[in-house]
Amino acid sequence: MIRTRKLEIPCPQCGSADVFYSCTPNCCFNHVCGDCGTTFEPATVAAGGSLRGFTPPDPLPDATDPTVECAKCTSTAVYQLEDGGLVCDKLVCGNCGATLTLEITEVAPG
Ligand SMILES: [Zn+2]
Ligand SMILES: [Zn+2]
User: Fold this and answer.
1) How far is the CA of 98 from the centre of ligand 2 (A)?
2) Mean pLDDT over all residues of the chain?
3) How confident is the model at residue 13 (pLDDT cuts 50, 70, 90)?
4) Residues measured by CB to lie within 5 Å of ligand 1, the ion
5) Å from CA of 19 to ligand 2 middle
6) Which residues contact 42 (CB under 8 A, 6 or more apart)?
7) 42 C-alpha vs ligand 1 centroid, how far in Å?
8) Relative to the alpha carbon of 36, which ligand is closest?
9) Average pLDDT over residues 21-34
10) Per-position b or e across 66-105, b if 16+ CB within 10 A of its CB
């Protein structure tokens, strides 16, 4: 069984993991770094594959945890894939199963 975990999106400016989602999916995907104040918007690009039979993260992400939209179906149930206990650089959509790669856009240094 393939395991997933909550999204981990480090700050593109300082690398801090202290990043939180400050908006709601029907508005925008603005994230804020708690260390340096940089704001950015993560997005996904379809990686071309799809997966079946993966487990969603436990616990599920909170509303302020990093959130991104699936490039294929616009679901926000997007999780980080785990590969042998290590975090993999691929994401997977919990709704349609598409594998995704992460892109960071709209970076505004704090
Ligand atoms: Zn930062
Ligand atoms: Zn999807």
Assistant:
1) 6
2) 93
3) very high
4) 11, 13-14, 16, 33, 35-36, 38
5) 23
6) 9, 29, 31, 66, 67, 68, 102, 103, 104, 105
7) 14
8) 1
9) 96
10) bbbbbbbeeebbbbbbbeeeeeeeebbbbebbbbbebebe
Interval 46-99: pLDDT, tens: 999 999 899 999 999 999 999 999 999 999 999 999 877 666 679 999 999 999
Structural domain boundaries enclosing 36:
2-108
- Euclidean distance between CA atoms 44 and 56, whole angstroms: 18
Quickly count: other Cβ atoms within 10 Å of residue 42's Cβ: 23
State how many domains the chain has.
1
How many angstroms does the Cα of residue 52 sit away from the middle of ligand 2? 12
| Least distant ligand from the CA of 104 | 1
